[in-house]
Amino acid sequence: MEGESLRGGVDEAQMSLSEEIWDVAKTVALAVVITVIFRIFFWQPFNIPSGSMQPNLLVGDFVVVGKGSYGYSRASLIWPLTRMDYKDRLFDKPIKRGDVVVFKNAHDRNVDYIKRVIGLPGDRIQMIDGVLYLNGTKVPREYISSETVGCRGFHPDAATYRETLPNGVSYIVQECSGNQNIYDNTGPYLVPADHYFMMGDNRDNSLDSRTPNVAYVPKYQIVGRAQRLVFSVDGQKSHIWQIWRWPSAIRYDRIFDKVG
User: Fold this and answer.
1) Would you call 237 a catalytic residue per the annotation?
2) Read out DSSP for 106-162?
3) What is the pLDDT of residues 243-257, one digit of tens each?
């Protein structure tokens, strides 16, 4: 009788342990499914790998992109939809001038790029002496200071400016080389239908629509609008995987900042 009671207790303990493991597995599986669903349909995190959007977005920033900001296309839904043409968008919504967006660059193996929308379909864009002109009108900008991010002072005319678009969207841009950059003086660009003209806020260090590497961006290549910073780590102090260095490397003042 004592042996049977012992075996019974062991069997019950094993069953209890198995049930606990199964419950944990179900919880983890549910969490993964929910995370995947949210990533596909709602929000997706992106890491800022370059300084093309300085001083507003820094290398090491992590932003959340709203996948449904402008509706859904194959670019935003990750996988091909068999009944959806590549150029279609479901629940199509207007893209606004001045928005910061993530898009797939067809000229670079569909790598994700993040830039600011400067030109809408039908707009005429031109750079003259480093100043942006939109539909023949100079976009006003106000000098802020000579303190720039990542310019390393290689040109005495490096400066930051506050630029304001016709719809009132205002943001900071920086010039690292005055008006000496090859793309500070350009011929006019006429934005085709269903395409957008993208530019980086770091005007002298950005592969954007001024270059053939990007050119005009089709609407169906746009993933979504960058909405908010969720994390930021200074890569000069720590790599993202070096958790033990985070206390001194995290840019605490940037977390949860709005992207704009």
Assistant:
1) no
2) GGGTTEEEEEEEEE-TT-EEEEETTEEEETTEEPPEEEEES--SS-TT-STT-EEEE
3) 667 777 889 899 889
